[in-house]
Design goal:
With about 300 residues, the protein is α+β, with helices and mostly antiparallel strands. The protein contains six helices and 19 strands. The protein folds into two domains: about 1-175, OB fold (Dihydrolipoamide Acetyltransferase, E2P) (Beta Barrel), CATH 2.40.50; about 175-305, Immunoglobulin-like (Sandwich), CATH 2.60.40. Helices cover about 15% and strands about 35% of the residues. A hairpin with a 3-residue loop joins strand 16 (about 265) and strand 17 (about 270-275). It is globular and about 65 Å long.
Length: about 300
């Protein structure tokens, strides 16, 4: 992403600065700001205490466009949370400029209180009115607490909760009977992870022949060719490995996994099963799709990111 100067914004922090707690690196905070406009589910306009006007784009998520399903609900919920209220913006500052999107909107995590106890992003994702959308991640530039992924763990947990509850956007995505679904993909860093959830009311035997693959492997499959990016659950989790209702299966890949742990699994019979697949990266940073086939050989669920065309 390119850092752009925001016309008229002179001060990086207001005269009485506050600092969010419990983040890994010191953030730059603008606040309190008064929300004077809500454009959609993930963008607002604020006025600072210095009377500066800033257009803001929520970083880390993407709410549905206004004309799409749940677009109106996302807009209304965002307005309910912030319009006419004070918010605090956690921003990235480089060379005296705010990190902004291509439209000049400041990218920010938006909080409802000075202690930054809960972001608006987290609320929208937990209610199924937005999905995680980490943009323009360059693995070699990442570090603990990097701005682009700073609150991603909370957002992933919130998205898993929304998927389990079939909330908002997930209502049409999750099969009526529940079952095993893909709830999120962490495609950045030295250890990637895909999170599958048991969204049903009965335990699932992961040793049944579920099959997971990425978009590259799926393209190979359609051509009648093979790929190593295919995980056959029967071989991996046999002879038996139960995942309890609302339980999470976390499958990790990447060079950050120690060799001694690759191929290892843990947690069978519980609500958290972990499997370390292999030591190279599988999920593309510029977009990918996970394909999950059920034991009867039918395509059961897909998870694509980015989930909609990256416009607003």
């Amino acid at each position: 992403m390119k850092a752009l100067a925001i016309a008229g914004v002179m001060a990086l922090v207001v005269s009485s600065p506050v600092f969010c707690q419990d983040v890994q690196t010191p953030p730059s905070i603008i606040g309190p700001c008064w929300v004077i406009g809500v454009q959609d589910g993930d963008s607002i306009t604020v006025r600072t205490t210095d009377e500066e006007r800033i257009d803001v784009r929520y970083i880390g998520i993407d709410a549905p466009e206004r004309e799409r399903s749940f677009g109106g609900e996302a807009l209304n919920r965002n307005a309910e949370l912030v319009e006419g209220h004070e918010v605090w913006l956690e921003v990235e500052v480089t060379d005296g400029r705010y990190l902004s999107d291509r439209d000049g909107r400041v990218l920010a995590y938006v909080f409802l209180d000075a202690t930054c106890s809960q972001s608006v992003q987290q609320i929208l994702v937990s209610e199924g009115l937005a999905l995680i959308d980490v943009r323009d991640v360059v693995d070699r530039d990442l570090h603990p607490g990097a701005f682009s992924i700073r609150h991603s763990e909370l957002l992933i947990r919130s998205q898993i909760e929304a998927a389990c509850g079939r909330r908002g956007l997930w209502g049409d995505r999750v099969p009526e009977a529940g079952g095993l679904i893909v709830a999120a993909i962490e495609f950045w860093g030295e250890i990637e992870a895909i999170y599958l959830v048991n969204a049903g009311d009965e335990k699932i035997d992961l040793a049944a022949n579920w099959i997971l693959m990425d978009e590259y492997a799926h393209e190979k499959l359609e051509k009648g060719e093979g790929s190593r990016n295919v995980l056959e659950f029967g071989r991996t989790f046999g002879p038996e490995c139960a995942l309890l209702p609302r339980g999470v299966l976390k499958i990790s890949t990447g060079p950050g996994i120690p060799e001694v742990r690759r191929g290892a699994r843990a947690g069978c019979g519980s609500d958290e099963v972990i499997f370390y697949w292999f030591g190279y990266k599988i999920w593309d940073t510029d977009g990918d799709t996970a394909f999950l086939y059920s034991p009867d050989g039918q395509l059961y669920f897909t998870y694509q990111y980015p989930w909609q065309e990256r416009g607003a």
